[in-house]
Structure to design on (832 residues):
């Protein structure tokens, strides 16, 4: 740990480690968010200690990720076989571990607790109260928002989560939203004090997610990924679960020309059978040979996939931000996204991509087909996509976040 | 609070208040246990502070129940509409409330944490670690035991509870079991260190639960309870839920002479429709007019019902102790109980009552019918029942418990 002048931040991410590969299980955009934000904060002199639940005996208790960033794997329940619904029962164990780590530090070590997702918010609430420091919270997803836009066949989030979220919203000194939509949802659905809510758009690593070199044509890119050249490619990157809507794309594919292919870059989430079910659906609607499922990949390779695709589709039923859309646009690939949540901010309709209302496969096929058939429009959107992506930088996000921490400390001082 | 020489005990009962009427919802024998034990401990000079989750806006934050006993209603989640499955998500909020109460006390206020049921154990684990005091835990019921003897149609307890129980067993400095069976289950099913397990039989308030006065014949007793005199009465006292097996008695009734009646003294638990479903079953098997359902009543009146009955039936699928059986026997009423868990200790087969294997209604009808038809045997068992009940006194329980606390403090000192 370097000596530093910035604040010391206890960053809580109970249910998923920022060191995990996103795109499967419980790991998604939030993991990227926590890690990238921490790195950008550390670059500004902050000391960030990230607490996450240990999920494997192979994880060392403490990992020094980079100067100024340390990850603590807190034992709380068994490494495996604990699903998200059982996690609330582990919050006491987790919080005890966080308090134990702090007790080994000099008194008053942390300046702020920043919690992510409601489970961490519950642990953060207790820890921040114990240490008498401000609690800053980012929701990432909200049960009330998710339940209002549930995918057909998906299970609503339980009342216990809604209650837990309400408490965290009330207890936090500051709430961070990624978009205006998320900020509004916090105020209207969770009765958040508008003065406590700050919009901090997450960033995209623009050094990693950038357009292809002029020498890299699409055929070469596809060859490198082992993807035979041929017709247009639609890319879906994300967890395979109803919330993300990959089934909409599989069904849309049946309405599209036979040379159009769909690449699904992601693993099962929620149910272990999710990928198999998606493949069964593809078989059923007669497009099994046009769907390629590939496990999720690390950022540099993910960027290659974005560049290799003609269009990236994001048919989620809800997204608080929509990191995949932002990353794809940064790579200069137009995005076709559902007009929900943060995607309405990230994707500028007609400029960086296309927003689609609803999840009717025929509508999606029409929008995707029109875009794939119009090379000039795709070229125009690609330029717009790249331009739109410059709005999202982690350095700007970290600067805003440090300001949120400072404001929260002031608010906390007045309260306490 | 009186000044005292005994230990200061933080007694945790998250999910049900000792001030609630047992016999409905989540309130049962454990509520009686916590309150009676606390009273007996206070009589021995201990200061007992009981922490329970606030479930109504009508509850004052602090209730001085008796000299040396105080109940704290800790706000953690909404007063109503939170079912037991949502409680794990409220443990951080609850624990924060307990820690807050302690922080207002002089340093090192509590000598021991005694937690009841696994949810409280999770909170107690964190609190005891923070305060560096021993954790004493009573399980009351165990998921693995319940799941192994599940009533048909009942839902198994979730993995998260099993894990939470294992953690509490491992973390506790001392474990209290009500019976030898429960102690064995702790060791064999939860890998408890046998040296940490102490058997402390709960008590029965023998001043309240005592045989009828010689002047009180059964007809007079029944008249006072508004129960028309007539044929034999079988009493079931407890929560109406599958675990307690009231359906077994309703079905058995169909095999018994038409003058035999069943009184169900209890309210719905688990499902709000539980009582209605039991009544529908009674209608279906043609005994609706022979089943009287009455809401649960306070101890003095409960004793009257025990005395008014010819036999008290306890057909539970599992009981860690079986307080109803012990109370009924103290009133001199023979008990017919399922040969499960603590009931095998409480009911001495052929001496204080009858133990029945399994839950086949025909078997239960045969055993109940034989006993109801044999006045001499019932008189003999009544004397045995009263004798058997003298094994259970709260003063003895409190003395043993103070010893457990002292031993736990010693063990904790060695570990810490």
């Amino acid at each position: 740990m370097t000596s530093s002048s910035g604040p010391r931040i206890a960053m809580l991410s109970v249910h998923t480690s920022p060191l995990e590969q996103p795109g499967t299980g419980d790991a998604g955009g939030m993991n990227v968010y926590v890690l990238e934000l921490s790195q950008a904060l550390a670059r500004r002199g902050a000391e960030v200690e990230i607490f996450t639940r240990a999920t494997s005996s192979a994880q060392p208790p403490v990992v020094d990720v980079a100067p100024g960033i340390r990850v603590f794997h807190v034992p709380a329940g068994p490494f495996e076989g604990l699903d998200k619904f059982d996690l609330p029962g582990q919050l006491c164990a987790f919080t005890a571990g966080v308090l134990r780590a702090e007790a080994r530090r000099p008194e008053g070590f942390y300046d702020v607790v920043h919690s992510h997702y409601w489970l961490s918010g519950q642990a953060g609430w207790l820890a921040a109260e114990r240490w008498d420091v401000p609690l800053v919270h980012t929701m990432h997803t909200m049960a009330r928002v998710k339940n209002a836009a549930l995918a057909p066949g998906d299970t609503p989030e339980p009342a216990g989560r809604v209650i837990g979220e309400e408490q965290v919203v009330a207890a936090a000194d500051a709430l961070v939203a990624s978009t205006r939509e998320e900020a509004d949802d916090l105020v209207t659905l969770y009765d958040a004090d508008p003065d406590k809510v700050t919009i901090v758009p997450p960033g995209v690593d623009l050094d990693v997610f950038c357009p292809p070199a002029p020498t890299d044509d699409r055929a070469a890119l596809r060859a490198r990924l082992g993807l035979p050249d041929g017709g247009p490619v639609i890319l879906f990157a994300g967890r395979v679960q109803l919330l993300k809507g990959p089934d909409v794309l599989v069904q849309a594919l049946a309405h599209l020309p036979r040379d159009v292919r769909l690449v699904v870059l992601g693993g099962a989430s929620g149910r272990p059978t999710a990928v198999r079910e998606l493949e069964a659906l593809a078989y059923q609607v007669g497009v099994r040979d046009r769907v390629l499922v590939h496990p999720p990949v690390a950022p540099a390779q993910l960027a290659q996939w974005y560049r290799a695709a003609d269009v990236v589709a994001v048919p989620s039923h809800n997204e608080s931000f929509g990191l995949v859309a932002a990353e794809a646009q940064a790579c200069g690939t137009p995005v076709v996204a559902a007009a929900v949540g943060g995607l309405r901010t990230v994707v500028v309709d007609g400029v960086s991509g296309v927003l689609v209302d609803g999840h009717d496969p025929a509508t999606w096929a029409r929008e995707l087909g029109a875009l794939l058939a119009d090379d000039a429009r795709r070229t125009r959107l690609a330029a717009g996509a790249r331009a739109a992506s410059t709005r999202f930088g982690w350095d700007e996000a970290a600067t805003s976040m440090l300001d949120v921490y400072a404001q929260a400390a002031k608010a906390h001082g007045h309260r306490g």
Observations:
- The first strand of chain A starts at residue 8 and ends at 12.
- DSSP finds 15 helices and 14 strands in chain A.
- The radius of gyration of chain A is 21 Å.
- The mean pLDDT of chain A is 92.
